[in-house]
Every structure is written in C-alpha cells, then in structure tokens.
Amino acid sequence: MSRGQVYPSESRLLTDELTGVAVRQVTDHPSIHHHPFYYLPAYDDAMQRLIFVSHRTGRPQIFAELRASRQIVQLTEQEDINEWSVHPSHDGRYVYYTAGGGAWRVDTETLKAEELVNFGSLAGCEEGMVGAAMGTTSVSHDDHWWAIPVKVGAVFRFLVIATQSGECDVILERETIGHPEFHPSDSSLLRYAGPYYDRLWVINRDGSQNRLIYRRNVEKKEWIVHETWRPGSYEIVVSNWPHGMIGVDAISGAVRSVCAFNAWHASINRQGTLMCADTTYPDRGLQVFDPRDGRGIPRTLCLSKSSNIGEHWNTDHCPYDDAKIKPYSPQHTHPHPSFSPDGRFVVFTSDRSGFSQVYEVELPAWSQQPKSQ
Asked: CA 348, CA 279: separation in Å to the nearest integer?
C-alpha cells in the first residue's frame, strides 16, 4: 500500500431510515476516514475527485475517489501529515497540506510531492484536538494564496504563501490563530478564530486591519464557535452554541439571527442560499435551512448516526468560562457536513459502522424549498 496504489470502488448505497433519501457510503476499509473540515472543500471545482484522509496504511494519508469510476487512489506516502490541514485546490491540480515542519502540495496527476515552505526547527503543534490545535489551512478561491497558522514557541505566526512563486510572508503573530478561511470571492480578506473569549477576527491578506468584529456577551457566557463566510456577502455566520446561529457583517458590524436550533458545524453552499448543519445534545441528524430569512427553519436531510464524541458540548454556555478544561473530542467522530461545489451533494463523516467512513448524500428537491413556520 503506497503512493499511487489504486483500490477498487468501495461505494455502496444506503437508504436513510428517517427521511428515505439515498446515502452513498464512499469508503469501507476498517480504519479511520474523514473528509476536510466542514467549511473547506472536499472536491475540486470540476468534481473529478473527492478528497479524503484514510488511516488504512497505518497512518493518515491523502486519498481521492475518482468520481467517474469510483476507484480510490492513494495520493501521498509521507510521515507526519497533519490530517486536518488538507485543502484541495479549486482547479484540481494539487492538494495542499502540512507535514512535519513544512507546507506541501501533491500533484493529483503525477503524484509528485513538493515542499513550498519549511517552517524550521522551532515550529511545533498546539496540544489537543480542537480549535487551533487542528491546524486547518485555507486556499483562496483563485488558488493564488495559501494561509497557514504555525505554532512557534509560545505564539502563533500567520503565514500566507503565494502558491505560484512560493514567497511566504508572516502577516500576524499572536497567542492563538485557528481555522483561517479566505473570503469566498475576495482573496485579499481572511477570517480566523482568536481565543475563545474573543473569537471572530478578520484581517487583510497583507496583515493590515486585523480586527475583532464581534464582542461576545460575557454575562451570558456566550460560546461563539464554528464560523464560515456567507457567499455573496461579507457576513460571517457562526454558532452561538447551543442557542442557534448569528450573522455578523465584517464591514458594518451588524448582527442578526440566522437560526434558533442547535446547529453545530454548519457549512454553506456557494450560492449562499442553503446551509447544512450537524447536531448534538440532542443529535437530530443533518439539518438543512435557509441562512437568509432570519428564521432558518431546519429540515432533516438524514441521520448521521455518528458518535459525536465530546462531552463538553453538553452545555448551555461556554464551558471554558467555568474552568480550564482539556476536552476529549476526536474530530473524526463528528459529521462535519460540507457542500459539493455545485451544491448538489453534502459529504459527511460517520463512525456508525464502528469505523469513521466518508458518506455522500444528494440533496432532494424538497431541501431547496422554503418551509413555512
């Protein structure tokens, strides 16, 4: 089992027991699998490949399902891959990732791996499995820029790499930087997660105008978490766990209600017209809703039937306000629903079979229709 290894299709169709929609299981090896983080793409824009991580070789490696044949191809054979850093380029040419002390990409055709930047011997990782410790990265919509937070000693450095030249700039240094995301149509602007008590930040790609755009209600111990840009706007939609989601405009600062249910990790389609969220405490399955109308009435797409490990989510306020905790929250047990580029599919992860596998569900016609209150 090595780079370039081709596996036969592991695809099989299931029927969701609650809604009756068809759910396709993409992977079936008895090992850990998962797709990229919920707000990151799992497919190239032409949807030739579905990118995921598999532990079937004994350590995390990057794989692709060739969607035309359903065959599975191993793209990497490398130690120390940060499995949550994976980001396919929009043009389908590369998959970007970090490994060891460097920023890498693999050519999806030749499978040649190339180190763009070496972080040096001082670079390390944040302890844990949540927030900045996951090491997620972001590639701009035009594939020209790659944003990476790197832990160096006691601080994080926010790196932006020009993917064509390999030039790298440090645009920010601070105590924590997590979950960066380029704006979906403006590659000069990024959002990122600061510390839990001041979560929502935006910054220009050149490092200017670093600013906090939402100050949480301390008295209510608001837990602001799991954010994403809303395409067609400069609004960031974020969970105020577990009370619903709010939208915060990064330009005007305007705040509005988006939905009022326990939307956990919520992704949005590229048209900005539909969101899909997993749920926990209680687990109501994957829910789809309109993020624009201020009501966000949820409709069940399918059950994830994943274990959703993380007892610290069983709360009505931010648990970090009560005590310093070290949550146990293995991310491959969370569904992390994510839309395909054309908006027709949602990919998610579930350990319903005993091992985390990748699943894909096609959105039925009714999911696009508004639901009356």
From this structure: 12
